[in-house]
Amino acid sequence: MSDLIAATLKIVFLALLWLFIGIIADVIRKDLFGRKVKASDLPPAEPVPTRRGASRAPTRFAITQGAQQGLSVPIAPVINLGRTADSTILLEDDYASSRHAQLTQQNAETWLVTDLQSTNGTYLNGKLVTEPTPMTVDDILRIGRTMMRLEV
Q: How far apart are CA 131 and CA 46, in angstroms?
């Protein structure tokens, strides 16, 4: 085999190796930081039924739409949302970040939603959360394609 063919094969092999490394890096980046989601791809928010005369203090935090619909956790002073194992609710959503958002109890009926610098943002009633924002029982929290709310 001539030196020219051997050098060409080495360069082709090196280019394929770098292509493979680039693909692996892209997969890791998407896994760590999530994917961008368009607002048009999301399901419409469902209306929240209101009860008159009932206590407005929530007793659980539940997923109302998405892959984990029906999952709920009892209320705690701090609820962490994301894809890491130490989250209170482990979100199985491709558009959620590792540590996406946090709910902290302000008083018996009001919670503060804080976005933890997520890639795709956290939305409360369709509005992007940029600073700690109060959340009550009637509000809908959206992370990626997952809709959640406080329930009485």
A: 24
